[in-house]
Write a structure and sequence with these properties.
Order of helices and strands: EEEEEEEEHEEHHH
Number of helices: 4
Number of strands: 10
Shape: elongated
Strand content: 25-35%
Structural class: alpha+beta
Length: 257
């Protein structure tokens, strides 16, 4: 069980100039006294090729952490554009907010960032040298990707579990921009399997009922044939009167004179 849970992240300036600082208001809950500080980081990801190209914008130690709900504002400078190729300054990138305890990350929240000119002419024909003072940064604040890592809070040196989703997957566009709902997806998959089992079960029941009906029909036909044979024997012995009575079961609704 995680001793710290991020309750809310409010991005104070989701739309701003590319060079403006990032401002995140973070609310979290601590359910037990911690021995060490929490560390928060803001990381800018502009390439999916390698994590070595990521830029750590800033890091912040928070502690001692009291039990209960806590809130603070995390502010970090914009990325160093001299370390980003000109052709990668615009379009889509990712900003990551991570939270760690004793150097073990237990929560990572990712947001898509769209960098584009606000001027229509510059959008149609971008200048060879980017004019960042005219580039607007838009963070998709309502579509975070939250990844939880299981750590041992008593001994965080133990190896953590792998993340549910990689940053490379986000950059590659494989993410749908929604919160991770693996448990709900598993439940949906289980429900679908149950529904399929129910359908298969119904088909088996229908097949069994059809077989039973066929067997009953065969039994009825055999019984009717036996009755017919008995009636024929009676007709031979008793004469025309018995034949008239033997025809009655096969003439339902007919009027006998």
């Amino acid at each position: 069980m995680s001793l710290v849970k991020i309750l809310n992240v409010n991005i104070l300036n989701p739309t701003a100039n590319f060079l403006a600082p990032y401002k995140f208001e973070i609310t979290f809950e601590c359910i037990e006294q911690l021995k060490d500080d929490l560390e928060f980081k803001l990381i800018y990801v502009w390439s999916a090729k390698s994590s070595t190209l990521d830029q750590e914008l800033d890091s912040l130690l928070v502690g001692p952490v009291p039990m209960g709900i806590n809130k603070f504002v995390f502010e970090a400078d914009a990325p160093d554009v001299s370390k980003i190729p000109k052709e990668d300054l615009l379009d889509v990138s990712v900003i990551l907010l991570t939270c760690s305890y004793m150097e073990k990350m237990f929560t990572r929240i990712g947001y898509y960032v769209n960098n584009a000119y606000t001027d229509g002419e510059m959008q149609a024909a971008p200048p060879a040298t980017p004019q960042l003072d005219k580039v607007q940064r838009s963070i998709l604040a309502d579509k975070p990707r939250v990844t939880q890592f299981a750590i041992n809070w008593d001994d965080p040196t133990q190896e953590e579990q792998p993340p549910v989703e990689s940053v490379e997957a986000m950059m590659a566009g494989e993410s749908d921009g929604e919160l991770d709902n693996d448990d709900e997806d598993d439940e949906l998959d289980e429900d679908e399997e149950l529904e399929e089992d129910d359908v298969d079960g119904d088909e088996d029941l229908d097949e069994t009922e059809a077989q039973d009906e066929a067997e009953l029909d065969d039994e009825d036909l055999e019984e009717a044939d036996q009755m017919q044979d008995d009636d024929d024997e009676m007709a031979v012995e008793d004469g025309p009167t018995s034949m008239t009575h033997s025809a009655m079961p096969h003439a339902v609704g007919m009027e006998i004179e």
